[in-house]
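Lecture 7 notes: from sequence to structure.
We start with the chain below.
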Amino acid sequence: MPVHPQTVSFLELLATWTAPPPGASAEPTIAEMRERIGAAFPVVRRELPQVRDIEVRGPGGPVPVRLYRPAPPGRGPLPAVVYLHGGGWVLGDVDNVDAACRDLASAAGCVVLNVGYRLAPEHPFPAAVDDAWAVVASAAREPERYGIVPGAVAVAGDSAGGNLAAAVALLARDRGLPLVHQLLVYPVTDTAMDTPSWREYGTGYGLDAGTLARFMDLYRGGADPSDFRLAPLRAPDLGGAAPATVITAECDILRDEAEAYARRLAAAGVPVELRRYAGVVHSFFLLPEIFDAGAEAMEFAVRRLRAAFGDREREDGAACTTGTSG
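Predicted structure tokens for the same chain:
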């Protein structure tokens, strides 16, 4: 399918949002990129009865978390999603996914915990995954603190956040902490960077291969590239992980590795549904104001989460159900 007209418009807008100011270096510094990233996501934020910033104890100190609740305090416990933002483990914070987390909380009828994990290069691997785990473990083991239904915690994330969500889901399996679902939105699942989609969409489609490779190096440091917490696709066994939803964009360097991960989950007996959105690029999920597919993907994610919350029993067997939208 050709690139969607909304993608063409987005890429034109992205070029203006991320253009370096006069006198800036050709290759922006990490500080400059962090300053610009907020301008790339002009969004309307839904009002909710409760939004508050809290802290969760983590291995490197307090982890900032923004808690969203779609019902007033005192209305009883709700299921929960721990959400992990993207940004290549180097950029981004809770503000960049604030609108999406508000939408998830409202539409799925759940508490959302939006995690401000530590970023590289100041805090290389495994700092981010350790912080993510600390919040997931706290939500599962201290549900009363957050007003969560015991045993009804899911994990979600986009891009590098999807990588962290997949890693945390495997840690939860290994550490005997059941999760009801993992929602992986165009996740990084490998360190190889050698798939056809990496080659085909490496430049000119929003998420450039050179930039993500640079970020991967900053995050990974000297760690083993086959560590499953870095590369979930390289985990020897995916069996027993939480049921999954995997969302991909056709014109995205991460498409192939994310879809390979969905297939490996299914082969390991994990219930998984994979859906690719045609003609769109990385970040579409967070920009429903620009992409119709973003709104459609959010609705799909909400349906999957609500189903997971409604029936927490594991399905017998598994199938990788695939689909294409657009």
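Points to note: Residues 292-310 form the longest helix (19 residues). Strands lie at 50-58, 61-69, 78-84, 111-115, 148-158, 181-185, 244-251, 272-281, 320-325.
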